[in-house]
Design goal:
Layout (H helix, E strand, L loop, with lengths): L3 E4 L2 E4 L11 H4 L2 E9 L2 E2 L2 H14 L8 H12 L7 E8 L16 E8 L9 E7 L14 H12 L4 E6 L2 E5 L3 E6 L2 E4 L10 H12 L4 E3 L4 H6 L2 E6 L3 E8 L2 E2 L5 H19 L2
Parallel strand pairs: 7-8, 7-14, 11-12
Antiparallel strand pairs: 1-2, 1-6, 3-4, 3-5, 5-6, 8-9, 10-11, 10-13, 13-14, 14-15
Amino acid sequence: MKNLGYYNGDFAELDDLKVPFNDRVHFFGDGVYDATYSHNYKIYALDDHIDRFYNSAGLLDINIPKTKEEMKALLYDMVKKVNTGDQFVYWQATRGTQIRNHSFDPKIQANIWIVLKPAKIKDCATKIKVITMEDTRFLHCNIKTLNLLPSVMASQKAESIGCQETILHRGDIVTECAHSNVSILKDGKFITAPVDHLILPGITRMHMIKMCKKLLIPVDERHFTLKELFDADEIIVSSAGQLALGVSEIDGKPVGGKDGKSLKRIQDALYEEFLSETEK
């Protein structure tokens, strides 16, 4: 099968699945999600993604009816039903199904969704163009919720002018991207925003920090400014699907390109880890 979907025990091609009208996701975007990629039918960094998924659900009091081990087993079972081992693996939990009301029954069980589609991670050798925008999202960006409208609009604006991502900022402080984390290299040091309520604790970001420490690249987890962003030796946009991409242009201005050696060391280390975890 291609583009396979799952909803509470039923699975089929996406166009053939039906979801109850009163699933709270339809009215409130009431749910959390996570996503990664598979290679050779092995799901990359699944333990880390599952931990983040359950943490997001816990912060919103969403009652997931499966243990972590049961959820991982379900994802692996679903991945094997697709006709290629290279897949985008997405799953979400919505709060449940009940008549529309802002408040909810705390005992209600979550609905489990899975979406699988053939896809490969991006080539890290390709540099991307980005734009900047004021970060207008809510103040719980550490929770990977389904309330993504500001990110949708930021992503669409970038695409409409031929760019691949939008870097968000609150005042002069850089936070993250519309659907990625952003970090910089400056004077041989890897600088990335701290994990707080303003950014998602990215799994690839976490793995980059580990790789930098192995490579003896100093790590500084702190907020950095727009000026530091534009003056950086390299800008790195990271996520599960692209690992770590360098940035060549921000708001039409050339950037980076001053420490390609360190950037490539980080990219190579991440890709080698991806292959080692997903080999047959």
